[in-house]
Design goal:
mainly alpha, two-stranded antiparallel sheet, 7 helices, 2 strands
Length: 145
């Protein structure tokens, strides 16, 4: 069977190296988010989450609370129109795309703001899905009947 590799550096790395990279990036992201995002910072404080104790991926799963759709909708209602979770992005004065959920859950509509960088990163992730499905770069736009 053909190997469908999109990014050999990560896909062929040893599991321990991948976990180490993930933890390092996660710790940087947590610190940045705490400093820049009032919504998540307060959510973590309310839950008693101590970011300094996140010293492994398992610790992250135990310590950092999940966020539910209702949390986002409540934030948007309390701090319209986008809520505190988007305040930092808005303060940057850069272009963004506004996306919303459909509201079919009955909890309300979530508003998500995406920067150009967010959109590019989403495209990079999509590259993995297409490659793992068997597509190659030269096949972009080709249809199968």
């Amino acid at each position: 069977m053909e190997k469908r590799i999109h990014d050999a550096e990560f896909e062929l790395a040893e599991p321990g190296a991948i976990r180490g990279y993930q933890l390092k990036q996660l710790q940087k992201l947590l610190a940045k988010t705490r400093a820049e995002n009032r919504f998540f910072a307060e959510h973590w404080v309310k839950a008693g989450a101590d970011l300094a104790r996140v010293d492994s991926l398992d610790a992250f799963n135990r310590i950092i609370p999940t966020v539910e759709k209702a949390d986002f909708v409540e934030d948007q209602k309390a701090h319209p129109p986008y809520g505190w979770r988007h305040a930092h992005l808005l303060s940057l004065g850069i272009p963004f795309v506004t996306l919303t959920s459909s509201g079919t859950s009955g909890y309300g509509v979530e508003i998500h703001l995406q920067t150009n960088t967010d959109m590019i990163n989403h495209g990079r992730l999509t590259g993995y899905y297409f490659r793992w499905a068997g597509l190659k770069p030269a096949e972009i736009g080709r249809t199968h009947v």
